[in-house]
Amino acid sequence: MSTTDAGRFARYPSLKDRVVLVTGGASGIGAELVAQFAAQGSRVAFLDFDDFGGQQVAARTGALFRHCDLRDVAALRADVANVAAQLGPVTVLINNAARDDRHGRETVEPEYWDERMHTNLRHQFFCAQAVAPMMRDAGQGSIICFGSVSWMKAQGGMPAYTTAKAAVHGLARGLARDLGPSGIRCNVVVPGWIFTERQETLWATPEAVASALERQCLKEKLYPPDIARMVLWLAADDSRMVTAQTFVVDGGSI
Questions:
Q1: In what order do the strands lie in the sheet with 92-95?
Q2: Rg (CA), the chain
Q3: Exposed (0-12), middle (13-18) or buried (19+): which is 21, by Cβ within 10 Å?
Q4: Is residue 51 within a helix (H) or strand (E), and if so which, with residue range?
Q5: How far is CA 37 from CA 11, 14, 33, 192, in A?
Q6: CA gap 120, 161 in Å, rounded
Q7: 3 domain-assigned
Q8: How many whole angstroms separate alpha carbon 171 and alpha carbon 186?
Q9: What is the full DSSP assignment across 101-149?
Q10: pLDDT confidence tier of residue 209, bands split at 50, 70 and 90
Q11: Residue 227, in any domain of the structure
Q12: What is the residue range of 65's domain?
């Protein structure tokens, strides 16, 4: 299923003209998020360091693409400010960007560990920090952080990634408490194994897919639109009293 199935699913009037910022929007789940919010009539911007993919998504959706290495906090802050200057105050932030590269515990050095934290965790805080004053002034906002089922399933082979993703939950709940008095919500979406092009290319062997489906209650592969529809609801006013919560979209695998 894709954005072409939009007629089958909900439209959210509260998302029309709302300024939405997506991190990691040049491919995979992020690209689908950009497309889905654009289809809702939102004013969408996304940050990514993939210029080729970003330009393609921007051309296809009409969204504003800003080249940004999210590990560079100064660049991140400047690009968030640029988005607000062009589109208006950001009131929906989707902290989607991450990389689930596999790595053995024996080979991890401090420099690699720090880089994985910067790639998968640190930017989620600094993006939230950058948009919080805009949301406070607007009297409302929705921050949606992305976790992972990997640590919930005790998955090995990438300890820095699973550590960072587990920490997202603590970050989101703390932000929900601190920002709630300003009408700002913060929740976590936890994707299961979502079959993006990257996943299909690198890890989706027939044996791995069969094992994943065996574990799931619903015996279907999950795709980016399955995640996007949960994110749309959390961004819209329909979920206005939902905060500090975790939503797992994994077909019932954990």
A1: 64-67, 43-48, 19-23, 92-95, 141-146, 184-191, 246-249
A2: 17
A3: buried
A4: helix 51-61
A5: 10, 11, 6, 21
A6: 7
A7: no
A8: 9
A9: ----GGG--HHHHHHHHIIIIIHHHHHHHHHHHHHHHHT-EEEEEE--H
A10: confident
A11: yes
A12: 13-249
Q: Which tens digit of pLDDT belongs to each residue from 180-194?
A: 999 999 999 999 888
For the chain, counts of helices (H) and of strands (E): 10, 7
Looking at residue 194, what DSSP letter applies?
Answer: B
* Annotated active-site residue in 12, 112, 161, 223: 161
* Residue 209 is assigned to a structural domain of this protein: yes
Per-residue b or e along 75-90, where b marks 16 or more CB atoms closer than 10 Å to that residue's CB: bbeebbeebbeebebb
CATH of the domain at 93: 3.40.50.720
Annotation marks residue 161 as catalytic: yes
Looking at the structure of the chain, the number of domains it has is 1
pTM exceeds 0.90:
yes
Residue 4 domain-assigned?
no
Q: With contact defined as beta carbons under 8 Å apart, do 149 and 137 qualify? A: no
